[in-house]
Amino acid sequence: MHWSYACANAGGHGVFVVDVFNSDRTPDFTSPGVDEEGGSRGSGVYHVPGAGRFYLEISATCKWTLRVVEAP
After folding, report:
1. Is 67 within 8 Å of 19 (Cβ atoms)?
2. Tell me, what DSSP letter sits at residue 51?
3. What percent helix, strand, coil does the chain show, rounded to 5?
4. Coil, helix or strand for 12?
5. In the β-sheet with 2-6, what is the strand arrangement from edge to edge?
6. pLDDT in tens, 29-69
7. Distance in angstroms (rounded) separating the CA atoms of residues 12 and 59
8. Which helix (H) or strand (E) holds 6?
9. What residue spans define the domains of the chain?
């Protein structure tokens, strides 16, 4: 998962949080995901451990992009 965010609002500081859940269970937090709070911008790559189906819950106060890529 490739992610980035940039805050032009909120004084240039904001929140970008991506929680990763395993869809094979009742909503059960399985991975730490991305937790960027108080920054003005950021980007990175997050590798979901293991195989399976997942869903994301995104909380953000900034503009963001996210791209999910399946590993070979």
Report:
1. no
2. S
3. 5, 60, 40
4. helix
5. 41-45, 2-6, 63-67
6. 556 788 888 888 999 999 887 777 888 889 999 899 999 88
7. 17
8. strand 2-6
9. 2-67
